[in-house]
Amino acid sequence: MKATERRPKQRPRAGEVRLEGQPVSPGVAIGYAAVAHEPAPPSVDMARRDCNPGHERTRLHDAIGRSVAQLGRLHDRLALLPEDGQVEIGSLLEVYRRMLGPSRLRRGIEARLEHGMLAEAAVMQETEALATHMLAPPGRPAPQGEDAVAARRRAGEFREIGRRLVRNLSGTPYRSFSALPDGAILVAEQLRPADAALIDPSRIAAVVTEEGGSTGHTAILLRALGIPAVLAAHGLLAQVRRRTRLVVDGVTGHVIIRPSSRTAAAARVDVAAYARERQMLGRLRRLPARLSSGEVLTLQANLEIPAELPMVAQSGAAGIGLLRSEFLFMNTDTLPDEDRQEAIYLPLIEAMAGDPVTIRVVDWGSEKNSDALSRVGIGHGGDVNPALGVRGIRLLLQHRTLLETQFAAILRAANAGPVRVLLPMVSGVGEVRAARDIYARIGRRLRRKGVEIPDPLPPLGIMIETPAAALMADVLAQEAEFLAIGTNDLTMYALAADRAAADVTALYDPLHPAVLRLLRMTADAGLRQRRPVSLCGELASDPLAVPLLVGLGVRSFSMHASAVPRVKRTIRAAAMDDCRRMACRALEATDGEEVRAMLTAYAHDLRHPGDG
Ligand code: PEP
Ligand code: MG
Asked: What's the domain range around 209?
């Protein structure tokens, strides 16, 4: 457990100093620092083994009671947060509450008390053991990519609940932000999600911390609260005191300490421009995604977890273009059955109020790993190269009950609104035919049982994310009712550059003409076979790339909800003729750099109203 200690006092340097941290929530702020130090944690005798287990159990139960009451008070504050903040912190509080219930954590702590340990020591050891287990599961490869992010988050949750219990056992106080002056910039060594939930966004201009990262709950919450924030600004606390003047840029990650009058004047211009931009992006929400030449496109949202749903509504997205159902299999020891899955899909479909929801059946394998699936013997079969092994539809066709359960749950929920079903990692027509047979059989079985499901069945589509699928898109389009291009994997497989490997990032370029030619083939095949084609890889959220993608023939895009307004702004300024011209040039370009230079020049020429 990382204890926060006060740093030894150093004399801050005079004059302007620039630090660089991780920008986690956009916006620019200028103001005075309010430094929130954390009370030192209690010192705990970890070696004692002579405590009375009964007495320590009672202390533990009292501390759990106090912790539950505190979480309840935090929950009561939820109504004061914006909608997406409510969802983020609400589900986090639920996780904490479950941990304090009859959980593995509680059983582990109580077992340690039987050995005469002090309750504080038992809590610290058990939460640290569980956190370490998350980060480095014994006998299994360490989690990678998105799994590593989820594991770090889960480890943080164990440590956080451990800290709360230890504070309640020892009566150590929490810090409070209620006394901070209006308009202050909150400066701290670190900020935990429960702390962030206590911040009143109307009173705090920005947040800067010395530690933290962009993918944790704190970052997500600060984004949801709309507070400009930079985390991991190393060297911050050695330089900043109470009322030190700061400029915080949550877009670039810059923190400017004691800005000169010229820097402060420039920052004030940025603050005003950012406020105008937010207003303008907000207005865009209700406007159509129409090119300046008149053609209307579709912008939808990708959803990783249901908690992101309110952001989808706020973004103005016209439905969910990709629901990655992997979340159902993460952080769980048991496979979600048909009822549980239906109960998750149903509110998502209802919330979209008539806009389509595209549910992709689980794309497991490659760099993704699941406790629930490994437990029943499904997962990496020792593939030499998991990205080229049994993943996506290949895995589902080997473990058909998994696919059958998911199809059945989706079909049961599909009466609530328009649904589309998507197959991942397709590389051949046989896979689509096999999956379609199962889909039809599950449909017949449900009808025989008297379950009401849509007739005809919801469209069954395929991801185009292998070069084979792109090259064969005209054939595959005869078997699938829609095509969704996954540029994340398509780029990886086309350029033989792992999407998660840092040493080949320079080679991993979705704007490489080789990738663009595959996109063009897919869009052409969709047009010829009259099948809708969408693009749901990260490239869809890049305003620079979208005019080119339109020129290549893509008319529907799905991206993280937060990207929708900016992409829409670019679309509304672009013209179809220009898009087509750029596509012709890009297909003849020699490399991605040449394409990027052309797109940058075009973006520069587009004038966005309100850009100033
Ligand atoms: C893709 O590969 O582009 C895609 C959308 O799927 P994922 O990122 O989930 O692999
Ligand atoms: Mg993919």
From this structure: 13-35+182-259
